[in-house]
Amino acid sequence: MASSKAVNIRLPPLPTIRDLVKLYRLRAIRQLSQNFLMDERLTDKIVKAAGNINNHYICEVGPGPGGITRSIIKCCPKKLIVVEKDPRFLPTLELLQEACKSSMEMNIEIEDIKKYNLEMGFEGAPQFSWFEAPPPINLIGNLPFSVSTHLVINWLQAISEKTSAWKFGRSSMTLTFQKEVAERMVAPVTHKQRCRLSVMCQLWCNVQYKFTIPGKAFVPKPDVDVAVVTLSPLKYPMINLPFKMVEKVLRNIFNMRQKYAVRLKLFKLADVDHTTRPFEISNEEFARICYAYKVICEENPGIEDYNSRGPKKSLEALS
Ligand code: SAM
Fold it and tell me: Where is the Ribosomal RNA adenine methylase transferase N-terminal domain (predicted)?
């Protein structure tokens, strides 16, 4: 159980991340979009954005040479799992594992996070009801942008199904994104950046843009700035429909792919003005549109295969 008292571990003297990167010749591989954070104040700030993690179960995704990992260890979680795809980082991560072994458990998994079983990783963590406070479980990571966006969609689906890390309750996430993507994730109704990702995130989570990290803070420097975002699953999600169905309805609405007659029918049933442009539709209205789609599907058996992209089996076929 989390304690409110901040407890810090003092690590034995270790070479700096910059020295380790040099020592082990860990040159960042551009094709893998590797950009490292060497500034301890920044890695501490990212971990602080996750809240009090003392005594928590943490999964860090993409630790690389271990900058954020050190900041996590300093907060003394109960268990830390690091999931890193690139085996070159094993020696530096083992160094940290050795340094903290008397205070906490640290597991190193050399694996792709997309294949890693979080439910097994968090085995032994306390299970909280969805309606209680969040469990002492956090996902933290500075991943390549393409991976973090893909991951957040997969994790939203797991949240909607209460599986994976969300079998334990409303586990929270602290992740980095390209600044523009983070702005889209938090974009409110009528904001020019509002898109499908904004609505998907906001239907299931409280999304907070924490702070910006300038590109120049990374080695090598990426072409864009980076933002730290926290996602906390809502106690009462704004929708309770299959994730794929919601995803499909939103995709069609934002792409303006449905026929006029379909839009008229759907929006009328949802009590939303059919002339409203997608970015002007609120989360509540989107939820109603998805429920209206479900009703229409029930009345028209055969079109409800929302997993299919086939032309006959989508919103476009609803005429
Ligand atoms: N966390 C380190 C830091 O902040 O300095 C490294 C950040 S670097 C942007 C991203 C890290 O994620 C790299 O170490 C990369 O090898 C790792 N990575 C990329 N794709 C991954 C995946 N699918 N699963 C696990 N790790 C991944």
Answer: 42-235
CATH of the domain at 194: 3.40.50.150
Whether 52 contacts 45, CB under 8 Å = no
* Rounded Cα–Cα distance for residues 98 and 224 (Å): 35
Give this prediction's pTM.
Answer: 0.91
Q: In this structure, are 250 and 219 located in the same domain?
A: no
Task: Kindly give the distance from the C-alpha atom of residue 140 to the centroid of ligand 1, in angstroms, as a whole number.
Answer: 11
- State pLDDT tens for residues 12-49: 777 788 887 777 777 777 666 789 999 999 999 999 99
Residue nearest to atom 5 of ligand 1 (CA): 36
148 lines ligand 1 (CB under 6 A): no
Residue nearest to atom 21 of ligand 1 (CA): 85
Residue with tokens 């006029």: 260
CATH at 290: 1.10.8.100
| Residue 142 Cβ < 6 Å to ligand 1 | yes
Do 148 and 50 belong to one domain?
yes
Query: Measuring from atom 10 of ligand 1, which residue has the nearest CA?
Result: 143
Same domain, 32 and 60: yes
